[in-house]
Amino acid sequence: MEPDHRDHRCHRPSAFDKMEGLVREMQDTEHGGVPVRSQKLFLTSIPAAFMGYDLIEWLMERLGIEESEALNLANQLCQYGYFFPVSDSKNLVVKDDSSLYRFQSPYYWPWQNRPPDNVEYAIYLAKRTLRNKQRHGLEDYELEALSNLRKNLANKWDFITMQAEEQVKLSKVLKKGDKIISDSQERAYWRVHRPPPGMVTSLEQCPVPTRSWNGSRTRKRTIEDCRRDVELLKNSLSRTRVKVSQALEGMVQHVETYAEYDPLITPTQPSNPWVSEDTTYWQLNSALVEIPTEKRVRRWALSMEELVSDPTGLQEFTNYLRKEYSHENIRFWMAVNDLRRSAQSQIQRKVNEIFEEFLAPGAPCEINIDGKTMEKVHQEMKAPSRFTFDAAQEHVYTLLLKKDCYPRFIRSEYYKNLLATGIQPSQKKRFFGFGQTKKKTSTSSAPNQQLLQQQPSQGATVTCGALSKRRGSDRSLSGSAHELAVSGVKDSKVPHSHSQSNLSDIPYRVKKPSIAIVAGASTSEEVCPWESGNEPRSRKNSAQLDSGSSSSDISVAVAEVSERVQRVCTLTQQHTVDGSRKLSTSTMDPPRRASVSVPITHSTTTGDSSKRKVSSFEDNSSAATSTSSSVFVIPSDTDNKAEECTSTSKTVVKNHGLAKACSVTGANAPIISVSSVADDLPVDSKVEEEAEATCSQQEPLAPLAEPDSESPASELPPSEPITEVEVDTEAKSNDVCPWEDDNPVQAKTCSITASAQRTLNPP
Amino acid sequence: MNELDSLRQEAETLKNAIRDARKAACDTSLVQATASLEPIGRVQMRTRRTLRGHLAKIYAMHWGSDSRNLVSASQDGKLIVWDSHTTNKVHAIPLRSSWVMTCAYAPSGSYVACGGLDNICSIYSLKTREGNVRVSRELPGHTGYLSCCRFLDDNQIVTSSGDMSCALWDIETGQQVTSFLGHTGDVMSLSLSPDMRTFVSGACDASAKLWDIREGLCKQTFPGHESDINAVTFFPNGYAFATGSDDATCRLFDIRADQELAMYSHDNIICGITSVAFSKSGRLLLAGYDDFNCNVWDSMKTERAGILAGHDNRVSCLGVTENGMAVGTGSWDSFLRIWN
Fold it and tell me: What PROSITE patterns would the database entry show (chain B) (predicted)?
């Protein structure tokens, strides 16, 4: 082996190389180091010293850092003993003033030699006792140390005093200035290595005697070791390496997807318990909860791992599979997990139990694995261990659960319902102080940023407002983890630049999607039992949309409306992974009032980036459809005509007026609150998906939207001009009706969510 | 030429071949790949709690899986389990050896483990029938100090040691199940992968190694650092990990690409790193330094995004809660701080 230059001294961290490099630069006065000279202090002249602020300035300039950091760095170096205060032998502190400091001689730098031993310390102390009491007198703690040393080193004491005398003699030869410097340096050295009691020393190492470096301390490497190394290296050489670009892509994608779920980046809802002292967050997010938060449910769609690593997620997943009569797989998976974590003594028993229950021919919950895996299991069964079923588990996990059950779960009504009923902490908070009146958009409690960001972006993409004004929504889009997740599921590439044009790449966009929101009439298998009739919850989810700006511009109005619709949808949050989804929300009181069932068809077509997105909606609400329910259809089509659109929008606007949604700022747009549920929502474009999917459940009484007074800032500027909008003319008149009818009602209902949303919109 | 020499020579050629293979896979840089990423801006975190109670240097801390309790080990010979929100001490456990260097909280919350210069990993049961805390198992077997330990579950724990090995233990029987040999320096730190099937270790031989827990074999070796690796932590997706070293740099290694992706360093950072942890998303890399500070790195841009200043001595340990809500730091100044 090559001789290790570290062998003769103890291993030192290589950070000290960097420190020494810096200190050498400081001392290099010829090339702009720290100015060192004799400093006059009153009548005495102090040789070879520099001032604190010179040092700080030098550091700031050299490293381009702020003063506080430079000060910290200077103190650090001082603590390590690279320089020391001239007039203070106790405290190793650097101040940014005219106080004086002196560089330590490299001989005394840390790690230049092995740490000093007690004999050297004794010599040093003894030497000082031999010298001028006034200048070299010992401190109390040093006296104590000296007497201890004299006791402990009694057999060497003659040698020590001899050495001390010798050194005193030598030092007498020196010039006065040099003597002062070398004395002070020696003293500073011992200040670092034998600090006064209670003082911090940076040089103190871990209590570990020595760390061994590169085997310097070690047993000899045997031939076996070398053989093993070579074997490992061979394996290592033959392994396949993913390209760095690919690895990085995965990493970037992960970071972007999870930014929303990273509390250090995105503030949490309802509040951070560390800041607010309010522990609601923990209550809402404990391991097993009855109703998970919406955000948490959304995270389950990111990956199977996210789902099963969350106890509540695993429980819901199991419940879902149980309903489908296919939960033997997940049960097997859990059983094997449990086995892996079991105590050794129980392994044998558990292995047998699992085998009997899931794998034996004719087992009660036989799982379906291929012959090869089965063979492996049988082989492993001969010597049962906690890993016996690993192969089978892997098979079940990747082939059955991950590829089949999980996507079905995420697409299912069951999941959608979870999402729809998920708690939205920020909204909950708002619920209390919120009357139906116009709420101020004060966001005292931090609004859910994610939501805020997301909304506008969706609005931007979906709506094609006529205005050329655009919100910079790209960013928010990127923030939408949901989109990423969705696309992830679909195996589509996630676009990294989140420009709208990318949206066009999103798969499974249906050209003619329609969201039908059916009024309470929708009965449904899909409705979760516990969900129906749950009044408070539905209220929470009800969305209220804020009104946009003055409606003189029709297209704006249209845009607003459509956006609003979107938003409503979004608020209710159905995020589904899949194109076709069914939503069902139940209203509590279907018969009572007319609820609006709104089949909304949005399609956003973004052909090319050059092509604008068109979102049009068609209002198809026919009051006539049913007394109790009205349908509101907003289809979007590329081929629509602008005029029609205008007419619709006009009516819409009118309605708003009727709805008396005027706020100070301008006409408010109506909020569409749909009290019912959509039975069958084929969803189309992915963009909308996020938004669309839902029906907002509201109290049945207020099917329509409520106007809100909003600050103008909250208006959503439509992102793109509408190219063409086709409106169902016939439907038009109908549309109006429901709103008008309900106006009074509407006014009454306030939807909490919407307000929350509103605040979110960036000006 | 004897066999030993020929083996050495073969190893050397293999190393060179591997270096070339890595270079071949390196078709881009982190900076290029993340150019389109939004900058994160300045991350400002404040001390939300200061946990006072230890009387000497704190050497280790570890969050419980509830993201609220944490255990800390100090050279005053105490292990303290804290409720970090109320700052109450849930348990204060006197140790047999005060030279403790590491501690760990079991995922179930039922056990804590610690160890140090006594070369023993001691398991304490927090939930005994009698209600007191007691030693439930001692795991002797390492021939060097215990530098790090992490529970796989209530029955298994992985330890790393100054005897250059890591080990998997069955707690119930007290037996060393697997020994992970291969490092040529003291192993200082280990981090379990999210799926608990592998772990990485960092050692004083300046390399990090990836181990398969079940097989007990080293799967990959990652050279790159110039000095001791003091800390390792997995990237949340389990395909990468970060290291902190005495050479004053943190580095990011990718497992699938089998190489170093990034280095986090700065001219004015000239001290060793004691501990590292990722935020929940992996975007932030937090590192504790010998200069009393913690730096927050934007892991994707390799830029410094913030600094946690407040301790009056070396930051010896650091951890992010499982839910990512808070950062805990422990220092030789005998205090723990909670930040977010």
Answer: WD_REPEATS_1 (PS00678), WD_REPEATS_2 (PS50082), WD_REPEATS_REGION (PS50294)
